[in-house]
Input
Amino acid sequence: MCSFGCLLLADEEVHSHALLEVPPAPWLTGPLIVPLATVVPYGDFEIQSYVYCTTNTGAYNQDWNSVSAERNFFSLNPQFQLFFGLTPWMDINISAQFYYNTVNGQNSVNFGDFPVALDFQLLDSNYTPYFPGIKLIVREIFPTGPYQQLNPRKLLADQTGAGTYATALDLVFYKTYHLEGIHFLSTTYSIAYTVNSPVHVHGFNTYGGGYGTNGKILPGNNFQAIASFELTLTQNWVLAIDNVYSHTDATQFFKGDAGTRADGQPASIELPSSEQVSFAPAIEYNFSCNCGLIAGCWFTAWGRNSMVFRSGVVNVCYTY
Output
């Protein structure tokens, strides 16, 4: 989003009446969480380098009440997203991510799961004055992160994946409105649904398990909605915020041997349905139309059967 929206607006400026005083096009990098709203056109590429520093401080129970954890779980998660334009209306997005996790003196460094996506521009945001642009994202997530045969002494520090081939469809709506002078409001809305494939699990795993666990489970599907806004203060400085709602279905059937816990009782292989509401305010500084930096925090406000987390996030975006 950091370059193509402002390039399109710049094109409009060129064709404006010569006597009209047209404000400079906005430079936009973010927001932090919502997907990129426009396709990277053929011949261009974009790099987004994120760093998430996250602390899980507890969990929300079934009644939406937060319960503090006995120990905090800390995670450092660098992510690199690469966008390559394939046609004027389609690009490919490849992401690589790593985790450094630590909890109660237990540490682990591993790859995360590996998403690959195709983005399709269904409607350009400048096609009509008021109706937003529309982009369709088709994403496949490959299970490259460790998710099973975990070391129980690591307290899940060595778990960085879900083990499932996940297929996601995401509709993104995007529009930039000129308020007055140099002030613009950029709006982005995302609605995504992710379908998971069955997972073979052995030993301690993402979904529970214990000693001798050997079976197959179907993770719950996920729905996520994001409403994001950016407000330009100057051409360089921008305020941004993401508002995120997520719902995950309960895990389905488990077939096989559940195994046992350390106390000899049968292990549990299931996760209940969960919900989470979170916010991510941020501030941007854009060096040019092609390069910007955004930094902010991402934190939970409400939840049910989900984690309580606080995260600092930084992203550097460059388009060529």
Observations:
- Confidence is low (pLDDT under 50) at residues 1-20.
- The first helix runs from residue 4 to 14.
